Structure prediction request, 889 residues.
Amino acid sequence: MADVRGLDVTLGEFALDRTGWSATGSGGTPAAVLDGDIDTRWTTGAPQVGGEYVQVDLGAPTLVNRITLDAGASSADRPSAYEVLVSSDGTTWASVAAAPGTPSTGTTAEITTTRFAPQVTRYVRVTQRGTAGSWWSLAELNLFSDPVLNNNGRTATASVTGGGTTAAAAIDGQVTTGWTTGGSQVAGQTFTLDLGANTEVSKVLVDSGAAYPNDYPATYEIAGSTDGSTWTKVGGGIGTNRILTADLWTSTWMRYLRLTQTGVKSNWWSISEIAVTSGSAFDRAGWAVTTTPAGGGAAMTDGNLSTRWTTSAPQAAGQQVQVDLGARLTFNNVTLDTEKNTSSESDYPRGYAVAVSDNGTSWTTVATGTGTTKATNISFAATRGRYLRITQTGTSGSWWSVGELNVSLANDDYSLRLALDKRFGKATAQSIIDTHEDTWITEADLDNIAAIGLNTIRLPIGWNELLELDGTWKADPWGRIDWLVQQAGQRGIYVLLDLHTVPGGGCPWGGCGRMGPNPNGFWGSSTYQDWTVAMWSAIAARYEGNPTVAGYDLINEPLIDYGEDGDDVAQKSAVYDRLYDAVRAVDPDHLIVFGAFFGWDKVAMPSTYGWTNVMYQLHPYDMPNGQDWDAQNSVVSTQLADVVGRLSNPGVPVLYGEYSWYYFDDIWARFMAGLNAVDVSWTNWAYKVRGPQDGGGGYWGFYNTNLNPVPIINSDDADTFRSRLAKFGTSGFSANTRMIATAQHYAGGLDTVTRTPISTAGWTASASVTEAGGSAAAAVDGSTSTRWATGTSQAPGQWYQVDMGSVRQIGSITLQTRSNDRWDYPRSFEVRLSSNGSTWTTVATGPGFGWKRPISFTTTTARYVRIVQTGAAPEWWSIGELTAYTTAP
Prediction:
């Protein structure tokens, strides 16, 4: 739960490399917006009147699709309204976004963020379009090129098209062209994008265009389909601005993306551009690939690992792959992947050099190294260029083959450390890391953990907490770990030492310290494995006999491949056995923990290697179905049913080290009580989460919702880095009182959930509005096939109320929709209680979250329960059944 890994991957992000950029503006000192210093600023020095601007010359055509404006200490000096314009020559400008200057949701007041359709441009101008008594001040301006699909080669159709426009114009990359209905908006109008192949979609952006800024949809739905016939709704909302952005709850695979206009509006519906986000790597459409030897380069970017480019000859120095990316990009990662279980797995480069260039003539080498089996993950300090060249520098009887080549700007701990070391040097970089570590966990946090009643901390340690990036030992690698072990021991809390990241990455995602392919770099590198053996030998030697240390968690979430086969499991288990032997050579007594990640069959059983005094750990997440109560409850049922048998066969203790049941307090309670009943250990993940609780993902943190801006890793100077990180002490977070209360309830070993539903006999129900022919009583009639509904779109102030007939003890309620109304949950709510129907107390607030939402609060007495809808959505608000309980779960 505590985190001493150094910088958490959420505590910083990469922007475009600003080297060589220049800024101009309407007066002031515009260079200040590019100096990395949050304490300097450009300002109008006078009230806003409209027309003030800041302009940046990027030096070369660059891909860009997001801008952040940071007012720094002058948080009141935001632009009244602003427009973002781009130009290839500094003379002819196109508007890509317009927005009010109000802070963006999910961040503090000094940051304004705008996404827009991707543009290749050299100049970016931000113009103030409103009036205000305050000055307009800007401390830092950053641009980003978040990965989105290139629409070249894709097709679009629409249910109706106005004269002189085409659906294709909405995906041609030009914000000055577009599609329109040619008539007023009516429900049922559709626009469909064919992505050409089944594609993972996580975000959708739609711009109505500068020429038609009010032609955004009144209300809309987003649906996906793999065949163009069967559609699944994945999002929806209310149009409010020319830029419509929809972040889907989870990435969804689809070939066809359909937008449906569901409202009525006198304006036409217009789209100048659509941008779709898929994955974390840059879209490769339009790349030009050349190779030495020549031929077959297109196979590296066709999305199919079973095709490949190959030298068709033994590896020799000078063989080469070169890519024209089409525009300048900022990136820090290149992966070379091949097809699993084929001869290509051994065709990795025996040596490589990666170089970048802006012009294809002058090259800068950014990385050298040796490839690894099947997949080679190449990371380097964030750089920029239009051209990428990978040269094979080794020799081998194997050919050099590449099934897929990807380029990305990875936001992970390893990339952050590379950037800090390169920008500031090791000493200053370490001082930045020290600022975070001294702030993130303090004695007060350990007091919080003890007060919850938890008796164990699973302490995640990054490998680069102990070693420098070159594998040498840090001068003082133990100070903070020793401190936490000592402080925890003083509070009667055990510490499980968790090597949360290993060199090269033990899994493909950022939580393992380094994003990458399958397998990531750790599994094919004997050097990285040697470093890890050395770390565990040193850890075991240092903490051998320490009574506070509960044991050693050898590798967090070890994963060689999403579809691990027997060979993968054998390879993983052999590495585990080597680490086990290293620990046992110096510490025969402490517990050793193995990750049975993705299932019990993903690691050898103890008898295979003769492992003793070991524990197996599981992380049973179902993130894609996070909003589905049934899906989350099913995971818990499966785990509780399965674990009992595992305790006897293979006969090892079990730790559930991580899991999340989102907002479902009743499922959290059932899981922890069920584990207590069979003496299985659990540790909540995590103690602190920066993200907002209202998004669902942050709910698992005992403390969450810190909206302060994170550092810009490749722009902020060292002092700005430190000042930003200093705001992430726990006092800057919100206490998740419900999660704390639930964990505290079961931390002592309680093994039952006693929550009695309150009988609805004699209840009367009323509502602020009810659909024609409907009844408020239908939501408390004991049947989930009937409902109460508003009969109109969700709007703040709508309410539903029950009179329980007499004062009752109440500690929680559950709202659920009918099975075919699953999008009709309240977008946000307040729960109010009253004993007399006139004086009300708000006992809970929060977002709706899926079709079934348990809502817990401090047990109290009341006669009346009122739920007030505080959000807005095009869907009706409906309740299939409301259930009240005497206590919280």
Summary: The first helix runs from residue 413 to 440.
